[in-house]
Amino acid sequence: MKLVNHHVLITGGTTGIGFGLAQKLVDLGNEVLVVDYSQENIDHAKKELPALKTFKADLSDDSERQRLADWVQVNYSQLDVLINNAGIQRWINLLNGNNRQSWDWYRQEFAINFEAPLHLTMLLLPLITSHKDSAIINVSSGLVITVGAWVPIYTASKNAVHGFTQSLRLQLDHTDTAVFEILPPAVNTNLGGSGEHTYGTDLNEFVSAVIEQLGNDLPEITYDTSWTQLRATKQENQEMTEKVWEMFKENPNFKNA
């Protein structure tokens, strides 16, 4: 994939992995539109990277996704790369159930993580496939390979993204649109909330690896632990799943989640 002269849309593109990708792609000579629900995040990203185009939308809402797609058709019709990156991750102890939150609170996580990339892809697919050397890039998770039991809705939604991406790749194999899946390891970002995810792979290292693998046309993009997991046996990954779960299940934050 030639990573220059594209018109890119990145959901969740003002922070974390999304913003890291936006920075790299702008530096390489691409035009980038980032979408976020938070005006504060948008303002901060724009200050850091003035070349960004921005759009405010809550992607958990289907009408907001339609509004974004309508705007793109009129104002950003050269769009040829969609990066479905927006996501939220919540620790949820299922035994606590509805004693904690309303169903809408639980549904929101699945809506942002899976419904949004599915819906946006369907809305924008005719536009994207009309351009040569175009691409759809979906961000799932290394937890597709080794289950994250402490984040059950996140894990389920990212498995849905994984399955959808595989189906999409087959359906588009006769077009000029490539389909990639990014399966991040734990990356040191604020996923899950400020201060809740301050461990894992360095963000800049990870983003650089993603750009390199996109340039080499690797359909499944991994790094660090997710690179190892993708190439491990089913038994090895099951053992790792159980080992990590042992670390989380007695954590007081999880027990009270």
From TrEMBL:
Keywords: Oxidoreductase
The UniProt record lists the keyword Oxidoreductase: yes
Alphabetical list of InterPro entries matching this protein: NAD(P)-bd_dom_sf, Sc_DH/Rdtase_CS, SDR_fam
Keyword Iron: no
Family statement drawn from the similarity comment of this UniProt entry: Belongs to the short-chain dehydrogenases/reductases (SDR) family.
Protein name as it appears in the record: SDR family NAD(P)-dependent oxidoreductase
Protein species of origin: Secundilactobacillus angelensis
